[in-house]
Amino acid sequence: MAVALNPNAFTWCPRTGEGACMSRFLHSPLYLLLASLLAAPALAAEHRAPDGVDLTLDLVGNVAHNPVGGVKEGTEGSYWIMAQSKFDLDKLFGVHNTDIDAQWAWFAGGNLAREKIGNSISAQQTWRPVAGGRLTRLTITHRFDNGLSITAGRAPVNSYFNNSALNCVFMSNAMCLTPYGAITDLGITAYPNSSWAAIVRYDVDDRWYAQAGVFDFNNDLNKAGKNGVDFSFGEGTGAISAYEVGYQTSFANDRLPRTYRLGVYRNTDGGRSSFFDANGNSAALTGKPTAALDGSRVGWYAMGDQTIWRGEGKRNLALFARAYVNTGNEAPVDQFFSADFVKTGTFAGRDQDTLAMFVSNTHFSDEQIAFLRDRRARHGGTGSPHSDEIITELSYGWAVHKGIRLMPNLQYVINPDPIFAPTRTTDIANALIVGLRVDVHFAQLFGW
């Protein structure tokens, strides 16, 4: 099935008048799609997947506008569509404890951070640098009876490591899908990009676990036109390994569920210097490419989710925190930290609504700041940008209907980095971002 949506459906046009905007929206495929969904539950019982087949079809759209700050004011919209099929081979064919997981995604739209603010941390978790369709996962998993499981195939690192559902009660890419740092520094394959992978996990009991994975690293396979179906192996520049131990509970076995994870990534591809060219000079001043590095890129991460209050049903308040520290080759980000909370169940009768907030600090390396300083000087500016970029988001997740959620949000960026404002000669003004995220989960809506 091919689904085509109009990116303009996610575009707000404040200066052309509400009538023009509404006309564009009403005639867009997105509007027609959302309108038709309201009648879907009545037909759900007649269209269920067979036992052993789990189907998912999700649409997530983001709109972001910066009325204050950045290089210039503007609005950008982006979206992704994800289709996933999980096959339980035990139920289908009698192959004990074995599953196949196939996932595909389509991305489109613009990036407010890059195109209007000038910084590198996207306010939209649905934007990706390469638009279009991509096979994001094709794996087979076998679970042994002793708690050991093995997964092999095509997979992204961040779907298995340093992962939590709480990351995406926000719209900012600083938190969702993966806390900032590891993708920039280590080049870990992240949804929707995938690579050949093998993952071994051991569940000690229903709480403690340990897992390790190895992933082929070939950044060329993430480029436009590859679409995730170039299955080349061993032609890349390195391998990524990831290791994680954790403790996790749920509402099924804990009144106050919690999750704690500690892990490390390693990429045998050493990456590139943030400052020096191959001759040991400032690449920003010479205009030459930055130098390739020997050695490895290594980064540690820790995360904790802790429910501290629980009311009736699953109404609760959870606190959580994220940390990332670069300990390998020099890379753009030295460290990232965030503190967060989410309240599930807000007003009377709004048990599924969420109120959430995070504050994060991304600390850029000395070499990255020196590169940006020299690039500024080359264009006639003076001084260095700030090394700490602080981002906060306040979001409200409104469960409009089963399978449909709207998330208005406010984001504020202090000390925006100028990585995507190459000719900027002064600091970028702090930016206020007004956002809206739309989630449509078709399986819930149709009752698949």
TrEMBL record:
This is Porin B. The keyword Signal applies. PANTHER family: PORIN B. The gene is oprB. InterPro entries: Carb-sel_porin_OprB (IPR007049), OprB_Porin (IPR052932), OprB_sf (IPR038673). Residues 1-44 form the signal peptide. Belongs to the OprB family. Gene3D superfamilies: Carbohydrate-selective porin OprB (2.40.160.180). The keyword Signal applies. One of its GO terms (biological process) is carbohydrate transport. GO terms for cellular component: membrane. The lineage of its organism: Bacteria, Pseudomonadati, Pseudomonadota, Gammaproteobacteria, Lysobacterales. GO terms for molecular function: porin activity. Keywords: Signal.
